[in-house]
Specification:
single chain, 202 residues, mainly beta, Sortase, Chain: A
Length: 202
C-alpha cells in the first residue's frame, strides 16, 4: 500500500466510518467483540496474489449477497465515502485500497439499512461464519475467492484502524457495515469481516 493510501485509510477511519448508515456519534461503552466460532481452514500457501484489476461484483453465497460494486473515494471532510442510500442498494469498493487479490487489505463497504427503503445489501453480514466464502469478480474477467477468517463487532469509538487498514503480506479482504444497538444518530457499532485469498478463477 502506498503511503498516500495508508494516510487516507487512517485519516478516514479515525474520523468516521460508514457515516451514511450509522451517524457520526462515537460512543465509548464497548470494545471489540471477537467471533469465537471454530477456526477456519488455513489459506492455501499456493494461492498467488493477482495483478491490479478493479472489482465489479461481489458474491457472498452464505448470506445471499450478489451486488455490483461502486467505486468509493474520500468525501470532502476526509471520511470514506459510502454508497448512496437508494432503493437498489449496492456495496462499494474503496478505490484507495488494493484491488481484491492484490497484496494488502482490499476494503468493501455496504449499508445494513437504507433508511425508508429498508434493508441494505450487507444486512446479514454479521451472520457470516469462519470458512464461508466471498467472491470478488474483477474487471479483467477473473475472480478472487476469499475465505472468512474472523467476524468482529466493534464499537465505533474502538474501531481497530490498524487491524483493518494496516499493511499485511498477503491478499486480504475487509467487508464493513454498521451493527449493534442503535442510538440517537444510528448504529453504535461496526461489523467487520476479515478474509484471506484462498483461490482464483478465470
Amino acid at each position: 500500500m502506498t503511503s498516500l493510501s495508508r494516510r487516507a485509510f487512517v485519516s478516514a477511519a479515525t474520523v468516521s466510518l460508514l457515516a451514511g448508515c450509522a451517524g457520526q456519534t462515537a460512543h465509548r461503552t464497548a470494545g471489540a467483540v471477537r467471533d469465537e466460532r471454530p477456526s477456519a481452514p488455513a489459506p492455501s500457501a499456493t494461492t498467488a496474489a493477482l495483478g491490479r484489476s478493479v472489482p465489479v461484483r461481489l458474491r457472498i453465497p452464505a448470506i445471499g449477497v450478489d451486488t455490483p460494486l461502486l467505486r468509493l473515494g474520500l468525501a470532502a471532510d476526509g471520511t470514506v465515502q459510502v454508497p448512496p442510500v437508494t432503493a437498489h442498494d449496492r456495496a462499494g469498493w474503496y478505490r484507495h485500497s488494493p484491488t481484491p487479490g492484490q497484496v494488502g487489505p482490499s476494503v468493501i463497504l455496504g449499508h445494513v439499512t437504507v433508511g425508508s427503503y429498508g434493508d441494505g445489501v450487507f444486512r446479514r453480514l454479521a451472520e457470516l461464519r469462519r470458512g464461508e466464502r466471498a467472491v470478488a469478480r474483477l474487471e479483467n474477467g477473473r475472480s478472487a475467492v476469499f475465505t472468512v477468517d474472523e467476524v468482529r463487532t466493534v464499537a465505533k469509538s474502538a474501531f481497530p484502524t490498524d487491524d483493518v487498514y494496516g499493511d499485511v503480506d498477503r491478499p486480504e479482504l475487509r467487508l464493513i457495515t454498521c451493527g449493534g444497538p442503535r442510538g440517537g444518530d444510528g448504529y453504535l457499532d461496526n461489523v467487520i469481516v476479515f478474509a484471506s485469498l484462498t483461490g482464483t478463477t478465470a
